[in-house]
Amino acid sequence: MAQINDHYLKLKAGYLFPEIGRRVSAFCEANPDAQVIKLGIGDVTEPLAPAILEAMHQAVDEMSQHSSFRGYGPEQGYDFLREAIAEHDYQGLDVSADEIFVSDGSKCDSGNILDIFGPDNVVAVTDPVYPVYVDTNVMAGRTGEADDAGRYAGLVYIPVTAENDFTPALPDQDVDLIYLCYPNNPTGTVASRETLQSWVSYAQERNAVILYDAAYESFITESGVPHSIFEIEGAREVAIEFRSFSKKAGFTGVRCGFTVVPKDLQGKTSCGKNEAIHPLWNRRQSTKFNGASFIVQRGAAAVYSEAGQEQVKNTIDFYMENARLLRAGLEAIGIRVYGGVNAPYVWLKTPGNATSWDFFDDLLTKAHLVGTPGSGFGASGEGYFRLSAFNSRQNVEEAVKRFQGVVAS
Ligand code: MLT
């Protein structure tokens, strides 16, 4: 009989968002008249921008003619998109188009990247954390079992809570792979240039690699907040960056993202010899991935056109006004809120010290509101709750009213 990957059996329950979906579906089935407002998973609600749609329509037309039809594209992405990304997203930074690998999203990339790293690396994650980083390492066999609080043996957890101002302290032990996500999912907070510099310096000293998830960089509204790890001196030698069109341009269903692997980045072989990482990722993608679709990449490239940039920015501003309304509405009833200024997530302290899941159930049953329990992102998220700003204005305003009703009662 075929042997399974036992490591999957160590995973706690289901993946967080399907688990929330399951509870919400059960509630809706039992309460068919309830008008549930979902501020749980960060899924965009606004349609694609006209410039993107136009480019995608044109790409469909190109596919209808022998002369312009495209079959398999380059596994790394079309040059037109890689060049547009380098020119716009990394303007003034030392990132070249051939260091950019286009994909079908950064969730996949942040899990797939583990293919090119050895099994014995010690992995550090912040706590709370985007669950994909943890679960993919469990699947890859880099952890032991989870304890009662859900922490896996072998992983190094770095708490980021209100007590330390959501600033991850450098670990007091050697780690090899470090996941950082800024603007942060789930807390919505940001890392200062100094904090990122301290991590880059740490990685340089220890020959560690930082896996930097910048999926939410386009939501930064304050000046001085770094948009890319490559703004930090030395990062080219120690970091990989993931970015996504999902939240920036409404591509959660369309699927497109990219990963930057600098040519200066090296790891070592099991024999202790230095090897460049860029060719490994190139080899991995060429073997296991056939590239994002041409039509999708044309749509992504249109994000960088003059019209596209303006339209995408308007939508981001719209979501960030939702975030402001959520923050203001919760603060008005004395709830401590974090994030929501440079990220589309508002992270709040549960009222009355309720556990995250108790608060989730309370909010669902009494106000028909869905958020994400902080403890679903890690043990240090207990007692916190996340609200997503991706929704219609009407739903956000209604959610604030309902929230106020539940908490005030
Ligand atoms: C979230 O809600 O944390 C995100 O939508 C999940 C994701 O991007 O995969």
Explain how this protein is built:
Helices cover 36% and strands 14% of the residues. It has 12 helices and 15 strands. The chain has helices at 16-30, 50-62, 79-89, 106-112, 131-139, 193-206, 246-249, 278-288, 294-302, 306-331, 356-367, 393-408, and strands at residues 37-38, 100-103, 123-127, 156-159, 177-181, 209-213, 239-244, 257-260, 266-268, 274-276, 337-339, 345-349, 369-370, 372-373, 384-388. A 7-stranded mixed beta sheet has the order 2-8-7-6-5-3-4, with helices on both faces. A 4-stranded antiparallel beta sheet has the order 11-12-15-14. It has a two-stranded parallel ribbon with strand order 1-13. The model has no long low-confidence stretch (mean pLDDT 96). D-malate binds next to loops.
Descriptive tags:
single chain; alpha/beta; Aspartate Aminotransferase, domain 1; Aspartate Aminotransferase, domain 2; 2 domains; four-stranded antiparallel sheet; globular; binds D-malate
